[in-house]
Write a structure and sequence with these properties.
By secondary structure, the protein is α+β, with helices and mostly antiparallel strands. It has two domains: about 5-60 and about 265-405, no CATH class; about 65-255, no CATH class. The chain has eleven helices and 13 strands. Strands 3-4-10-7-9-8 form a six-stranded mixed β-barrel. The chain has a two-stranded antiparallel ribbon with strand order 2-11. The two termini are about 30 Å apart.
Length: about 400
């Protein structure tokens, strides 16, 4: 045990009577503890929300997607698609034709996003866990069917059990003047509704899945025209390596994107929010640590006689400075350790028992998700150490200067 730590510990723990300085130190310790606990919990909640969004996207989106850099469609020969299917790590490749269209059902109509997919789409089994009504059928006995999002079902009051009322899709004919009175202005498809799915994400509420052939006919696509290619990888595949292997076989007009890259804006927004909240809570810890500043300043005044005695015994100003810096570290780091332990305990209880719920029974999870990461613990510790040094330095420096004043 070093001399500065021994003396600082005596100042903090071995006071014969509790003074205002003692209570101020305890208040500072509690403030740092609460701020540290809040920082750990909030960062863990942001991590949980990020993981939740990844889980939502994984339940519907593919691992890799090939998209055009400009425009909505591209042309690719069948031979190239065969080569892409043979790339190591690619389990399924789904060809897609997608665009916006007008949907009409009985007396209702709304704009939807249609997504035409081939037969491999249902082999991915991603819709199995999010189907809320009906069946997963796109084509049966020569008839085309649509699988719709719950938002479309609610907007048009669609019932998959109603086999007599078709879902009508309209798309503007190229080169024709648009007119609601002229049927020739629109391409049209009629489909039955086989199932309804629900995804906890607003950008999927207007989605309608239909067979690729029906989508091509509706959108006016040629046999080699696509909106995108979606690839499901094998469980042991290296996503980055497969992405690079696919990109090498494609022209520069096409780009391969991962699931996270397709949702880059959302994850960037979560990261920015996490940074700003961390800065805000760091300032709260700084404000709470001001009590440490006042506590050390008054302690330096109270221990003037001790400082004079230590100076007479040969103590250098650097020793006095280290004593008060250690005192500040004991106050702040004790609060930080307690706050860190409480924060981790709250995260464990939330993850295990779901103390705080969303309040909506239709949510994919019933309670706020949390995920503790080691880098956040390191960040929290770094913030507390920096704030402790910043707050403790000036009182410690003032106490050290008292030696020079007494000697003069």
């Amino acid at each position: 045990m070093t001399l500065p730590f021994f003396i600082a510990r005596r100042y903090f723990f071995s006071r014969r009577k509790r003074s205002f300085i003692s209570y101020l130190s305890i208040l500072a310790m509690l403030g740092v503890g609460v701020g540290t606990m809040a920082l750990v919990v909030v960062l863990s909640v942001f991590n949980g929300m990020e993981e939740l969004n990844r889980q939502i996207f994984k339940s519907f989106e593919s691992d890799l997607s090939v998209l055009p850099t400009t425009g909505k469609r591209f042309t690719m020969p069948a031979s190239t698609i065969v080569k892409l299917r043979r790339v190591p790590g690619v389990q399924l490749l789904t060809t897609v034709a997608a665009d916006n269209a007008l949907a009409r059902y009985a007396d209702g109509q709304t704009v939807v996003r249609i997504k035409g997919v081939d037969s491999t789409y249902l082999q991915r089994h991603q819709l199995d866990s999010i189907l809320v009504e009906g069946r997963l059928v796109l084509r049966q006995n020569g008839y085309n069917f649509a699988i719709i999002a719950e938002g479309v079902r609610n907007e048009l009051t669609i019932s998959p059990e109603d086999i007599l009322t078709p879902l009508e899709l309209f798309y503007p004919e190229r080169g024709k003047r648009l007119s609601s009175l002229s049927p020739e202005s629109f391409r049209q498809q009629q489909l039955g509704v086989s199932g309804v799915f629900f995804i906890e994400a607003a950008n999927y509420n207007d989605l309608v899945l239909i067979p690729l052939a029906a989508a091509r006919e509706l959108l006016g696509y040629g046999p080699d025209d696509y909106s995108s290619l979606e690839m499901q990888l094998t469980p042991d595949a290296d996503e980055q390596a497969v992405k690079e292997a696919i990109q090498e076989q494609l022209p520069q007009s096409l780009v391969v994107s991962t699931r996270d890259e397709l949702n880059r804006d959302l994850f960037r927004a979560i990261s920015y929010e996490k940074i700003f909240v961390s800065i805000t809570l760091a300032f709260i810890i700084l404000i709470a640590s001001i009590n440490t500043f006042f506590s050390l300043s008054m302690l330096a005044l109270e221990k003037k006689q001790d400082i004079v005695i230590m100076s007479a015994m040969g103590a250098a100003p650097s020793l006095i400075r280290r004593i008060f810096l250690t005192e500040g570290a004991i106050i702040s780091l004790t609060g930080a350790v307690v706050g860190l332990a409480l924060g981790l305990l709250l995260c464990y209880l939330q993850e295990t028992y779901g103390l705080v719920g969303f309040g909506t029974p239709s949510s994919i999870v019933s309670a706020y998700p949390v995920r503790v990461r080691s880098e956040d613990i390191v960040l929290t510790g770094a913030v507390v150490i920096f704030v402790t040094f910043l707050i403790s330095y000036f009182p410690a420096q003032r106490a050290a200067q008292q030696i020079g004043v007494k000697q003069n």
